[in-house]
Amino acid sequence: VLLRVKRVFRLSSISINEFHAELEHFGTLLLVQEVLAFIKAHEIAEKAFKDLSQGDGNGELTQAENIVLQESVHQIRLAEQAFDEFDEKEVQQIKSHYACNIILSRAAAYYERLSLQGLMSEREAGEFLEEVEQNILHTKECLD
């Protein structure tokens, strides 16, 4: 099966062991990003829940609301503990690249917005967007 996959993706220049290591890293990458997204989703949900729960004007949470928030905090702790199953250095590298991609994607969106609002010419925005795109590709290459 691995040989067939190597042929399909034209990866004949790497050994089976290197290919297996790449697949393993890709699996770790997906899992770490999944855990990061899970944590962020819980943080956003907690904030929204607090904002909605305190909308009654008294500013205090009920016992049931506190239980819901405590469960969310517990889920975040469990998710963070999942990182212990992976190589710490690899997790840090994945987190760093993930953060870089988020920042660069936001920069690209910002330049597009400036162009659409007429605050920057399409040509100027295009130049910045090309640079941002190159940086995004560079972060992906660094990860490999």
Q: Could you explain how this protein is built, in words?
A:
The protein is mainly α. Helix content is 81%, strand content 0%. It has five helices and no strands. It has helices spanning 2-8, 16-53, 63-82, 88-116, 122-143. Helix 2 (16-53) packs antiparallel against helix 3, helix 2 packs across helix 4 (88-116) and helix 4 (88-116) runs antiparallel to helix 5. The radius of gyration is 21 Å and the shape is flat.
Q: Determine the fraction of residues in helical runs and give it as a percent range.
A: over 70%
Alpha-carbon distance between the termini? 22 Å
Structural class: mainly alpha
* Total E-strand runs: 0
Instruction: Give a short account of the largest sheet.
Output: none
Radius of gyration: 21 Å
Assembly status:
single chain
The outline comes out as flat
The run of helices and strands is HHHHH
Number of helices: 5
| Mean of pLDDT | 85
What are the low-pLDDT stretches, counting only 5+ consecutive residues below 50?
Answer: none
Percent in strands:
under 5%
